[in-house]
Amino acid sequence: MVNAPGSAAPSPFCSAKGCRAAAVWVLAWNNPKLHTPERRKTWLACEEHREHLSRFLGVRGFLKDVVPLAEWESPQHAGSREPHEPGTG
Ligand SMILES: [Zn+2]
Question: Which long-range contacts (CB under 8 A, 24 or more apart) does 56-60 make?
């Protein structure tokens, strides 16, 4: 977590093991055994690993959404990221 106010967030990296490529995609997923239905966990993926990671989640039935990172970070999606406000979960 970045907790230095005023500093720009670093470019997010792909979540694939050992991959340091810049993330291009956000995979939104939910494990119904662990999470409430509205909850969204997110993995980041580069172009190369998008298919691999989405397949990993897809075969388990966890995958909910795959959206471009730029779109995910737009205000439209801001409310659906990991909530910090009380009472939203
Ligand atoms: Zn990658």
Answer: 57/27, 57/29, 60/31
